[in-house]
Design goal:
Strand order of the largest sheet: 6-5-4-3-2-1-13-12-11-10-9-8-7
Shape: elongated
Helix content: 10-25%
Strand content: 35-45%
Oligomer: single chain
Length: about 500
């Protein structure tokens, strides 16, 4: 009798285990359970328009004092109309923080325009992020998963300390992972890995992860559930948090909510949809500057400087992209056909400032960088560029990388164009390196010298830190230049500092 009872219990346990195993290993079943938890497929397909008001904050990951935070922040109060059916978005955003004012973004029918305070104008940069937003949103991601030909079960993971079933598939050539809470069957996270080569700040990271975490799921009118908070992470770091204060579905929007005039559509069509790797070297309206013989500054949005020494060429800065650095290398070979490039110096950690280092690494050219910037530079060198392979991606061994870490005073070369590197170690210049040419009495100020179009300079604090560092190192400076500044008399900078503190 006991044997029969034990056998029956074991059989029952095996049956339950097998049923659970079948249940969790079937990706479509996992997705369908999640759809049912939201309210059912008919209600999900019935969401045509969403109107929400939210409060959130946005971190400037790309150009804060420290790459690992704390970061500069903007607070945003947003009203959003989302045309789920036709793939359109309108956002009216009130900004408080690093940026002040109002912004309006409209994306509809493959056209994107924005108003930053001077009227609506074409803004192609919003196309890719809005495309991702709509696809990864809770009202659409599960339906997209069901339609994916490669939908598969990815096992279980602990996501936000909760067990989650993982389903995976491909969307527009990009891998997507969705974490569905094992207990509630609601979406906890979406993760899509894509490249954005058209973006100024994020193009440098190749194929990077965008994760959205959904929480505070609430029962809505109509009998379905919808999350009231979204936390977005780029490359594993928190980019923004949006808490939805109110949300309504399938209401009629104001008549001109998504309207983009014919003139704006024509203007949008005329705007070059150029990716950052396609940028030409320098700018046609700014010819190269000879700061001294064989000391050439190539002006651009981010300046690059070529310096000939007796044993080769030194390059200051590797901005923008691998492709831009390839153009710099080609320009060096054009100017100095028989000279080797002995090194490149990277002086700060803002994303666009070091975005082209991979090309130098692939060519085996030594890189000089501040000790504090080593972690983020190594992250860049090991980033994946599968969608748009550069030279380093084609040689993934990374064995050629020659990273020289600057920890203190570092001398490069001899003679008239000798350079001396000094860590600045100040508050805002903590992760910057200044470069001094002793015989020329010329100082390179990294990102601390930024002239304003209206006259004067941005941020007197920056200038005082550079001045203090130059004084600390007993430098005799006559001229200053920087990644955003052409050669300028040093006394002009000192006069501005003196005037600023009056």
């Amino acid at each position: 009798m006991y044997r029969s009872l034990l056998f029956a219990l074991l059989l029952c346990a095996v049956t339950i285990t097998a049923t659970a195993q079948t249940k969790t290993n079937d990706a479509r079943e996992v997705v369908n359970r999640s759809i049912a938890a939201m309210g059912g497929i008919e209600k999900l397909r019935g969401i045509k328009l969403i109107h929400s008001r939210s409060l959130g904050h946005f971190y400037f990951l790309e150009q804060s004092e420290r790459p690992e935070g704390p970061w500069y922040v903007d607070y945003q109060k947003t009203e959003e109309w989302r045309d789920v059916e036709n793939g359109g978005v309108r956002r009216n955003i009130g900004l408080t923080g690093i940026q002040e004012g109002r912004e309006t973004d409209i994306v509809m029918g493959g056209v994107s325009v924005s108003d930053m305070g001077n009227g609506l104008a074409p803004n192609p940069n919003n196309i890719a992020p809005i495309d991702e937003l709509l696809a990864m949103a809770p009202e659409r991601i599960l339906l997209i998963a069901l339609d994916a030909s490669d939908l598969r079960y990815g096992g279980t993971e602990m996501v936000q300390s909760s067990p989650s079933d993982i389903v995976e598939f491909t969307w527009k050539g990009s891998p997507v992972k969705v974490a569905i809470n094992h207990n509630t069957n609601l979406i906890t996270m979406t993760d899509v890995v894509r490249a954005r080569p058209a973006e100024q700040f994020w193009g440098i990271w190749g194929d990077f992860s965008v994760k959205n975490y959904y929480s505070y799921w609430m029962l809505q009118k109509g009998g379905f559930r919808y999350p009231q908070q979204v936390d977005t992470f780029y490359n594993g770091q928190p980019l923004r948090t949006d808490t939805i204060l109110s949300v309504e579905f399938n209401v009629e929007p104001p008549k001109q909510t998504f309207q983009i005039s014919d003139d704006l559509r024509t203007a949008y069509t005329a705007v070059p949809k150029r990716m950052f790797p396609d940028l030409p070297l320098g700018r046609p309206d700014r010819p190269p500057i000879q700061a001294a013989p064989d000391f050439t500054i190539i002006p651009g949005n981010w300046n690059v400087t070529l310096i000939k020494q007796d044993d080769g060429i030194v390059i200051i800065e590797a901005p923008i992209s691998s492709a831009y650095s390839a153009k710099v290398i080609a320009e060096v070979k054009r100017r100095y056909p028989t000279a080797k490039i002995k090194c490149v110096i990277s002086t700060s950690d803002s994303f666009p400032h070091f975005g082209g280092l991979r090309e130098y690494a692939a060519a085996g050219i030594p890189i000089y960088a501040l000790d504090l910037n080593e972690p983020i530079i190594r992250r860049l060198l090991w980033a994946e560029y599968k969608s748009y392979p550069d030279s380093l991606e084609k040689d993934p061994s990374r064995k050629k990388v020659k990273l020289n870490i600057v920890r203190g005073r570092t001398v490069i070369g001899t003679g008239r164009n000798q350079l001396v590197l000094y860590p600045i170690r100040s508050e805002t210049g903590e992760r910057m390196t200044m470069i001094y040419a002793p015989q020329l009495k010329l100082l390179y100020g990294a990102d601390l010298v930024q002239p304003l179009p209206t006259g004067g300079f941005f941020m007197p604090q920056y200038l005082t830190e550079l001045s203090d560092a130059a004084t600390r190192e007993n430098l005799d400076v006559q001229q200053i230049f920087a990644i955003h500044c052409r050669p300028t008399p040093w006394k002009q900078v000192l006069a501005f500092i003196a005037e600023s503190v009056k």
